[in-house]
Amino acid sequence: MTSFATPEGLRSLLNRLDAAGPGAWSTDPEAEHLMRFTIDKYRALASKHHCEPEDSAAAAYEALRTPAVRLAQDPWAVVTRAVQVTLIAEERANGLLCAPSQARRTHISRHHDARRLSEYDADLLEFHPALWVSDVAPEQPAPSTDVPTGAFEAIDLAIAVFVALGWPFNTATCAMDYIAARLVECGSRATTHAMLRRDHSARALLDLDRRAWATLLRLTLGTPSPSLKSTSVGHGILLQLLIGDSIVDLLADDGLVLEISNSAPRPVRAIESDEVA
Fold this sequence. Notes:
Elements: H1 7-20, H2 24-27, H3 29-41, H4 43-48, H5 53-64, H6 67-71, H7 75-96, H8 100-103, H9 106-109, H10 124-127, H11 149-164, H12 169-186, H13 189-197, H14 200-205, H15 210-221, H16 232-235, H17 237-242, H18 247-251, H19 254-263
């Protein structure tokens, strides 16, 4: 079994390649073995999304070079998720006949795959309801109050980012679900941030200190400052994911990675009986 097949082995190799400089990836024999290993590791995932195995290696290469993977609690988990997201975008791009960067955006990926007229035996006028003519005005559908499907995916991805950078899974899941529920009720990120900042009961239930709770709200909902409104800091993680940013994009932000890692709740050391005076 190769040394980099384990999380700590991969971390050790990535640290060595980073210390060796920019040319290490093209000259180091173990780096070549690592990329061949990723092709075999993600071959089934690539096949599932109708992509070539080499596409998964390219996605893994982009993720492996980021500091976030080296700092993650489980580097392979972050790489796997990054490869999955990239392959999904590649699959949607092939179906939509657009670039993968466009396929990542919710307002584009929600469309169906491109269809050719030659694929159907029926005439287009008979096949497509949009071209039918009727004297009766179509009934207007009632406005939907459901949360968009992309929002649930964004919440799941945000949870994955926090968990990968040291947050307990249960804490990250409960916190993100709670924030999302309040966001739906308030309808505004700024209003939600102001309300949750004073929500001491939620912070107590999640067992978070004031610093961790404030950092979680700021990173998730963004900063309401007018000067930062149009930046990634002002957008917040949830909005970044909703407008098409990927986990790789988030993990490439060293400042964001450090803030999430440093704010992760630390387990409280049990007090030994002989320490109690």
